[in-house]
Write a structure and sequence with these properties.
The chain is mainly β. It has one helix spanning 10-17, and strands at 58-62, 65-66, 71-72, 75-79. 9% of the residues lie in helices and 16% in strands.
Length: 87
């Protein structure tokens, strides 16, 4: 019997016992954050803040979309209380 890999299910072990094999799923995203550094890390002041009015806390996100010939990088800034886009 082949050694079991981390995350392998019992179904994988049963298939192995029958002489079959299962494909393990690969991660479908690329990890882009490197937290292994000696730079200062600031506390997340927004983690405990409960927004009670507009313009008290803004949140932002950015992502990328792969097009046929290029990448585009849409970004948005939202008001945390109203959940509306900041103009």
């Amino acid at each position: 019997m082949a050694p079991r890999l981390p995350g392998e299910s019992q179904a994988g072990a049963a298939a192995d016992a029958r002489g079959q094999s299962l494909c393990l799923r690969r991660r479908k995203f690329v990890v882009t954050t490197n937290s292994n550094h000696n730079l200062p890390v600031y506390s997340n002041l927004a983690a405990t803040l409960v927004a009670t009015r507009v313009d008290q806390l803004w949140i932002a996100d950015i992502t990328y979309i792969r097009l046929e010939l290029e990448f585009v990088y849409p970004a948005v800034i939202l008001d945390a209380f109203s959940r509306r886009e900041i103009d």
